[in-house]
Amino acid sequence: MAYLTRVQESIDYIEENLTSEISLENVASKAGFSLYHFHKIFHAITQTSIKEYIRKRRLTEAAVELVNS
């Protein structure tokens, strides 16, 4: 259960910082893991990589902005 909480906290951090530069190492450290270990945990829980998650979220936000402008 702790893994889920820590991954959710890292997702919250990503969501708060979508418009700025996001370091994968920083995201992993926010969750309290090494980048290697965090990547494995994140992928097991979300079925996507950290980079892919960030890219998809940024594209979604860009699409929303296009629709609303």
How do the strands and helices of this protein lay out in sequence?
Layout: H1 2-16, H2 24-31, H3 35-46, H4 50-68
Helix pairs in contact: 1-2, 2-3
Write up what this structure looks like.
There is one protein chain. The protein is mainly alpha-helical and 69 residues long. The protein has 4 helices and no strands. The N and C termini lie far apart (41 Å).
Question: Would you count the extended β strands for me?
Answer: 0
SSE ordering:
HHHH
Query: How does the helix and strand content classify structurally?
Result: mainly alpha
Quaternary structure classification: single chain
Proportion of β residues?
under 5%
Distance between the termini: 41 Å
The total of helices stands at: 4
Computed Rg: 13 Å
Provide mean pLDDT, rounded: 94
Outline the low-pLDDT stretches. none
Query: What does the overall shape look like?
Result: elongated
- Percent of residues in helices comes to over 70%
The largest β sheet comes out as: none
Keyphrases for this structure?
69 residues, mainly alpha, 4 helices, 0% strand
What is the gist of this entry?
The protein is mainly alpha-helical and 69 residues long.
